[in-house]
Structure formats: structure tokens, C-alpha cells
Amino acid sequence: MKVAVISDTHYGARKGSQLFHDYFEKFYKEVFFPYLDEHNIKQVIHMGDCFDSRKGIEFKSLQWAKRVVFDELQSRGIRMHLMVGNHDAYYKNTNNINAVDLLLNEYDNVVTFSEIEDVMLDGLNVTYIPWINTENHQKTLQHLSNTKSRVAFGHLELTGFKVNKYVNMECEHTASMFKDFDKVFSGHFHTRSDDGKVFYLGNPYEMFWTDVLDNRGFTIFDTDTLEHTPINNPFRLFYNIYYEDDDHQLFDAREYRNKIVKVVVKKKSDVLQFEKFIDKLYSVGVADLKVVENFEFTGWNTEQSEEIESEDTLSILDRYIKETDTELNKIKLQNLMREIYQEACEVT
Description:
This protein is of the alpha/beta class.
């Protein structure tokens, strides 16, 4: 049987931003559901962070999620197994109060998992691992040591894997927890990476500047062969444009309509020409435009400049802490800053 695997959908992101949800909806209407229809897929696994804010969701975003995703699953007779991610859990030390249990209980085709559990999936015994916290930590480790499952799906935070394409995670848990499994699939980190056994499958769409040109989408898992195949989302939201005295008349700006754009100025000898270039972007209706200039690009290659210009707040904080000369535990400090940043983003 073929199963669709998806994770970190973050409904309600950016405080219910219409721009982001229109972009998300394009993925579901033109990529996700058409693929499921064409291949008659009737089972979806969601590996957590269904919703964006652990504190709550405003009504408009909840209505959007039900209309665009959960009503469509129900109308097609598609069953979803949905794990609790850290963004879904109200408290940090327990999964007991969580968004997916409270908001989706009207859907009899959606089964939620707040604790580790073995499930039979078309004859294949698999283990579902929701977010690991202080309350369920010992129970989770004990279950992992006793289960006979060959495959696990979870919302895991493991050291050595990529948080994004520029930053590797350093934390308490390691992939050795899963030494007895054949394959482990996880959400939580939004970029794809693996060590040959543990596979972070990434999220469906771009959400931050660090996601630029990083493949996004969902995955098809075969319960018979244990093979998995990524299905890419072709739609983008974030764009870097590198300006070098480009002729605005030859520049086709139409693809940047309703996009988030950053113009990085590498060469600007004619201010009027540059202003016409920027005006052309505004005229097509960019959603957001930022200009970065006064950098010395001599000796830089494109990959280096893209890395610097694509950094988001968390990447900058991680890099700053890593490069700081301090006797403090840098891993704990990085995790603390991530938690503080997440809470700041949820303040209304």
C-alpha cells in the first residue's frame, strides 16, 4: 500500500497571514490532493506541528484548515494518522492538552496520537512517536527498546541533523535510540536530511528565508518495500534577486507577483535605473520587498552570498552563540533562545 507522509504544516502561521495561507492552499489544490486522487491514496500520516502556535489559533485560520485540508480528506474517504508536535502541545512538559485532539475531534477519519504507540498499517507494524517531553521521555525510551516495529514515524529532535540547510542541530537525543529499526521518518526540522536510516522528510512549503531554493513537498511511503519517494512542491514564495545594473526594460517581473522578494545590490552605478527596476517590481504587486546593499561582494561566490542573505533570525542567533567565546553550555543556550524566539512569535 502507498501512504502519503506529510509534516509541519503549521496552519495559522504568521498569525494567520492571508498571503501564506493562499500559498499553502495552492500546494493542496494543485499538488497534494491531485496526486492522492490520481494514485488512489487513502492513508495519510502527519508527523506533527499541524498547527503553528501552541497557545491557540484564530478562527479564520481554523476555518481555512478545515475547508482546505480536513474537509477534503473527509470527502475523499482518506484516513489520517496525526501525531502531536511541539507546536501542537499547549505545555512544554506534556502532550496532554494539544490542538489536534481539541480542534479535530469532529473528523472520524482523523486519528490523533499524543503518546508513543504501535499501529498496524496494511500489515506492517509501525511505531508513532509524538513530541518527546519530560513527562513521556522514559515511557518513550522503554517502548522503543521493546517494540518489534521495523519502521517508526515521529516528531523528533535528534542531534546531527539539519535544522535548515545552513544549521545542524545539537541536542540531547541521538539516532542511536533507533538502532533496532530499519527506517525512521521524522518531522520537526523543515529541511530534508538523513543518515541512511533516519530520514527527515521536510515540510510542504517555504516559510522562512532559509527555505529559498530548498526542496519542499511530501513523501510517498510503500508499506510493502519500505521505500519512500519525495514529491516536490514546485511553488515558491521567497525570492532573492541579485542586481548588477540590470536593465529594467529587459526585466520580466511578473513571476514575483504576491511573492516575498529581497533585492541584493551587487552593483549600482545609476540610481535612476535602479529606482525604475524597483518600481517595476512594485508595479506587478510584490507582497513584500526588501533591498540589501552596501555589501562588499568582491571575492564572494554566489553560494556564499546566498547563505548570508538567506539567514533568518534563528540562524543568526545560532551562529552568534556558536561563535561566542563563553563558558556557558552553548547547546542549552541555543535551545533556550529558540524557545524564547518561538514564544515571541506567538505574542499577539
